[in-house]
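Dear support,

Our group has been running a series of protein-ligand predictions, and this particular one with coenzyme A is the one our PI (initials K.S.) wants archived with full inputs and outputs. We had some confusion internally about which version of the output was final, so please treat the block below as the authoritative record. The input we submitted was:
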Amino acid sequence: MAAGIDDISVYIPKLYVDTEDFAQARDVDIDKMRKGLGIYQMAIADNNQDPACLAANATYKIMKRNDIHPKDVGRLYISTESSFDESKAMNAYVVGMLEQVYGPGTFGHCGGVETKFACVSGSYALYDNLNWIRAGEADSQYALVVVSDIAKYDLGSSGEMTQGAGAVAMLLSDDPHLLTFDPKVTATSISDEYDFYRPFGKDTPIVHGQYSNLLYLLQVRKALDLYKKKVLSTKLITPGPDESILDYIDYLNMHLPYSAMGRKALAYLLRHEWRHLPRWKSLIEKIGMAEPVAQHPGTIETILANPEFIKDDSKFNRLLMETDEFIDIYEKKLSSSLIASKMIGNLYTASLYLGLRSSLEYEHRKGVDLAGKRVGFGSYGSGSSAMVFSGVITEEYADVVSKMNLDSEMKNRRRLTLDEYELLHRGQMPLTESILSGDGEFILTDVNKSNSERQYVFKS
Ligand code: COA
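Confirmed final output from the archive:
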């Protein structure tokens, strides 16, 4: 049975910090943020919003747009790493909010859990729900997978410039109108790491930034190797002698903690895939230096302990990214997926899927015929695990994509002053005070001081 995505909705908070203001306030070179990291604006959640509100707003949008009633939904999964309760799942909060609109008990039949594994958990939720559909358990109902996060780092930390907030809801069915996932090729990798984690009671994560960057690349590469084995054995892709499986993937969507990480990951995966192909020789001649080789045993620790290797390797990567071969692939397969990330920032679990929406919309606007194109996904979550999988865009995708408009999601946002941003970041305002009133959205109105119960309303 086929399984895939029918539609994707996005909810972006209406407040943002501009890198111009941020760079000046933190005395950071704006070129580092814009050119180095690929960040222009970061969406910021208002005082009356939490990740459950963002998730409910994205879910409500997709249900309205597709004229779906709760009775049509068999599963509602929420994936997040911004959870505010150790036991009660975010789904319950979202169901409570949606039932304010659809009526009490309307979701009573629906199942689902909150999933956690840093930024990769949405991909696990997606995979599990696709398999629920493939197993024939859905009984003509939809599954909703919602990824929602507020990426918040300590003030003054190096991660602070990679923040953002938002939610993406994906409507899944056995007759998908947008993208059908390839069965039996999803690949995973996992290991116990401390690159990024948020212990109980902490509002912000403990981050080893460069370590997490490197782990991201290594874990995705491991998952790609397994994906490759699976696509070759299932004959989904049969590359010729001077070909790589990446030649058969028309679009790539990578996890985007910041947009430049997608570009970096593309360069790394191409190196991994191309270095044994005949084309590598002429590319090395163009680059003008040999590819640096990590000292045996090439573990993450030996790599990080060798600044000379890291320096040479970054130089090699930079030169590779300047070649026509790389630029051509970057423009064709990746660049459109980065546009939204540049203007919205880091959405943790949702960043990969915001990238998918960005890619579909901006490629469609270019007039490219996307029907039948294969999309590859590289999902990464710190801690750490990666997933690599793929899908094919449907014949009728244009009906769905032509109704999408990220520009309108991003317009009419309010640029925060740094003082306002810091006030929001410190959580110093009472809940009754927020920058915006949240019209036409679910908002948080109260967190009970004695028992932590939360109250939400839909502001019509
Ligand atoms: N002009 C252009 N580029 C510049 C620049 C300038 N003036 N100054 C710096 N840069 C480039 C650097 O060369 C680097 O590029 P590279 O990655 O291609 O080498 C990039 O900007 C970032 O600079 P760097 O010095 O590495 O930044 P940093 O050490 O301050 O931290 C992160 C960057 C991402 C590690 C940090 O923001 C962080 O910890 N983020 C949170 C964790 C995260 O996002 N992890 C990702 C994996 S999930």
